TrEMBL record, chains A, B:
<dbReference type="InterPro" id="IPR036621">
    <property type="entry name" value="Anticodon-bd_dom_sf"/>
</dbReference>
<dbReference type="InterPro" id="IPR006195">
    <property type="entry name" value="aa-tRNA-synth_II"/>
</dbReference>
<dbReference type="GO" id="GO:0005524">
    <property type="term" value="F:ATP binding"/>
</dbReference>
<keyword id="KW-0067">ATP-binding</keyword>
<comment type="subunit">
    <text>Homodimer.</text>
</comment>
<comment type="similarity">
    <text>Belongs to the class-II aminoacyl-tRNA synthetase family. ProS type 3 subfamily.</text>
</comment>
<dbReference type="InterPro" id="IPR016061">
    <property type="entry name" value="Pro-tRNA_ligase_II_C"/>
</dbReference>
<dbReference type="InterPro" id="IPR017449">
    <property type="entry name" value="Pro-tRNA_synth_II"/>
</dbReference>
<dbReference type="InterPro" id="IPR045864">
    <property type="entry name" value="aa-tRNA-synth_II/BPL/LPL"/>
</dbReference>
<keyword id="KW-0963">Cytoplasm</keyword>
<dbReference type="GO" id="GO:0006433">
    <property type="term" value="P:prolyl-tRNA aminoacylation"/>
</dbReference>
<dbReference type="InterPro" id="IPR002314">
    <property type="entry name" value="aa-tRNA-synt_IIb"/>
</dbReference>
<dbReference type="InterPro" id="IPR004499">
    <property type="entry name" value="Pro-tRNA-ligase_IIa_arc-type"/>
</dbReference>
<dbReference type="GO" id="GO:0017101">
    <property type="term" value="C:aminoacyl-tRNA synthetase multienzyme complex"/>
</dbReference>
<keyword id="KW-0547">Nucleotide-binding</keyword>
<feature type="domain" description="Aminoacyl-transfer RNA synthetases class-II family profile">
    <location>
        <begin position="34"/>
        <end position="300"/>
    </location>
</feature>
<protein>
    <recommendedName>
        <fullName>Proline--tRNA ligase</fullName>
        <ecNumber>6.1.1.15</ecNumber>
    </recommendedName>
</protein>
Amino acid sequence: MADKNLIKHALNVTRTQNFAGWYQEVISEGDLAEESGVRGCMVIRPWGYGIWERIQKLMDAEIKAAGVDNCYFPLFIPLSFFEKEADHVDGFAKEMAVVTHHRLVGDGKGKLIPDPESKLEEPLVVRPTSETVIGAAMSRWVQSWRDLPLMVNQWANVVRWEMRTRMFLRTSEFLWQEGHTAHVDREDALKETMRALEMYRAFAEGPLAMPVVAGEKPENERFPGAVATYSIEAMMQDGKALQAGTSHYLGTGFAESSGIRYQDKEGSQQYAHTTSWGVSTRLIGGVIMTHGDDDGLRCPPQIAPHQIIIIPMLRDNDDDEVVLEYCRTLRTELLALSAFGEPLRVLLDTKATKASNKRWSWVKKGAPIIVEVGPRDVSEGKAAVLRRDRLYKDDGKLATAFTPRAEFVSGAVAMIEDIQATLYAEAKARMDANIRRDVTDLATHFAGDEAGFAGWVEVQWARPTGAALDKIVEQLKALKLTMRNSPLEAAAVDGACFFTGEPAVERILIGRTY
Amino acid sequence: MADKNLIKHALNVTRTQNFAGWYQEVISEGDLAEESGVRGCMVIRPWGYGIWERIQKLMDAEIKAAGVDNCYFPLFIPLSFFEKEADHVDGFAKEMAVVTHHRLVGDGKGKLIPDPESKLEEPLVVRPTSETVIGAAMSRWVQSWRDLPLMVNQWANVVRWEMRTRMFLRTSEFLWQEGHTAHVDREDALKETMRALEMYRAFAEGPLAMPVVAGEKPENERFPGAVATYSIEAMMQDGKALQAGTSHYLGTGFAESSGIRYQDKEGSQQYAHTTSWGVSTRLIGGVIMTHGDDDGLRCPPQIAPHQIIIIPMLRDNDDDEVVLEYCRTLRTELLALSAFGEPLRVLLDTKATKASNKRWSWVKKGAPIIVEVGPRDVSEGKAAVLRRDRLYKDDGKLATAFTPRAEFVSGAVAMIEDIQATLYAEAKARMDANIRRDVTDLATHFAGDEAGFAGWVEVQWARPTGAALDKIVEQLKALKLTMRNSPLEAAAVDGACFFTGEPAVERILIGRTY
Ligand SMILES: [Zn+2]
Ligand SMILES: [Zn+2]
């Protein structure tokens, strides 16, 4: 394997050199997104947006299958909604985009300004979440136990003014789905909270091939107002955690502040128990940092906008039409096949660019299978097949396999499925290998983290609250660490709390985070 | 048919009594949308949003099939982009939502205010369209003729501050798609302009069952900066026109202001020729005013979120399980069928409400077929089938057909297709009957329009420009009339201009409009 050091990779920065720089390079070289000129807002380019469309399509089917209805709520939220929600208005300070005027006019000096005469009586906030407006709608829609459960979801853009942004991971504007549900009682609401969490876990580990740990967030990391917050946490290749989805059980607190009440079967008024849950374009950042390598993204086939790219090697001569015809036939044969319950997505790339440029462009984008066809392949009835997950041979050369066409076609579905499984298995092995359960001193363990990819540490703890919890959070913060979640599937406890020495009640993961 | 006057319709307002009031009632009683509390912004409820999802799904497939890539561009546009675009900044005055601050804080007196310290150096405008940011992106993405055509589309929310709003038709925030394409020359750009127009025409007349006239807008109705603007115009049941989609050929003007240049095959720099085209949630308003009747919406099957509703008549006794089982089997049989190339969409409505309430709720929503099943239907192997497009018999009673189950199932696809065709044929006949070509005096013809549904008038004209055109526009405006478009498929001209008496060069439609 030593030869691999000689490989001239497609990106200029490797993961070990500079993980953050590598991440940006995958995004720009893979045509996933770019800066828009408006700080913190990105342009999501076709390949990046195609991945989001795949995520939306597959997740939306799960959401609908659970009986949740999609709706659309307004972009703007009156400022007064936040006053109602804020516990202490005077201490309130939140980063949000505030609309104060409704007209632009010339100022008479060649510049445009917000027309002072168009100042809004009540400023409008660009939604950071639709919690409050959906709560207000639910209070109108829910009257009787017959109206419950009420389960709605929205796919939308939201804005949280961020000072330090990073594409897909933390942007001022991002795309997400937010599910909001109301139920007759705690049991039914908790069931929905856990259904959504399990939907996210299965989605991450299925279509995204991204192993995660599903668990409950500690009290200090709960969504404000939630009785319990659950998350899926994924391990990036630098060992940091990415919170990739959350599901909250809100008890009756949210229903009380929003007025979501119903008449029960006995005729008395009750507050509904509510939940909310969401994932965002952040998932794309997670996919990049889970599967990317030094040649760019490796896109899991289930969410790849195109799974197989066919590149005709054209020479501007008489052979070209024969090559194109061969490629078209190959594409037709492949389109008749299905993987993961959907027809294969196959692109014949006829752009007027050199074939080798196209190949590297698709390598950087992470198309799962890249097939090149030249006149010689046509005469031999073959195709040059490159699997993106196994790009190089041990000697450092491209692992292109010259395969008889019929053999490639008959094996294409298995290859697609194998790439999906391989990406998951690789990431799963890495995550499992980097969760340590024997660490006794966090400072020492994480000291070398800049270079060493220290991963996560799982400890047993007594789940302290109040001041005792605050103290732990502060200690961790000094080490740039946070508690991620208490895994639902952790082993039973058998010892003392890592922090307090009291009898432990559960296990919890600790790590650095995005 | 006299008995029909005795029908007690599901809505409180009829179309003839008060068309505008009827429209609002269809929307509220059909659970399509409601006011949000933020002026001009609506909440789109599940049934309304489900229709939009159907529109998106079918249209998006057409857009992708044309080789157009979906992207996502930022919600916020810097104010300076509008300064660049404005011809004369000093006369500029446009209704737009302007973000001026990025933080809310308590003012110390129990209120929240935009933090004065968070004032943005450059205000941001909430996109009224993404024209300018997409132009800026295209100028980065286009270098060579090899990069053309560059065709992108975005599904997004946009905001145009409106003083007078009407749900779906004119709202401050609405949902739309905007296609933007760049081409090497006029010919290619015009081809794309016409492809998009034809896509819209076929979409309106196909899935929406809404007949339209495709044609070119007169000069005074062109999109600012466009060389030519084309539209599809639909006739509402009050005879007014609804511009339901537009496609613009922008020449090189937009490329010049955005800097979209490419190196041609000979090595010299050229400006690209660009197009843009869009449709919005306004289409839903068009569907309501084309197909609605005094019992609510009649939703064309192709865009109905559910095409067949099965309502079990439950009595809270031992028969219930038998009825439910029969309904589930019926649903399974129907789900195995396809219409318009997609599996039937069938809902078994098990909500705990009276069956007759459910029936009327689905009538008002416009579900194409409503099936009720009671214990007696089960024992007779039948189902009570109601077609939404033919609700009443001549005697004014509901036209429920007690049909053997197997017969209903085997005829379901044909019934779905027939409803789609019937809705189109009805609307088409109405539009055709209400385009008059013999009108000599517009004032007289449109005088009785408040009651008489005067429809449109087609005239021949000389296509004057400048002052001569202005004069015609003013004359029409005094009669509350506008020119809609010059139909692409109009008959040849054979006379003088209706306005100027000069030889006519084309025909043009005149009418009242939304
Ligand atoms: Zn939420
Ligand atoms: Zn546009």
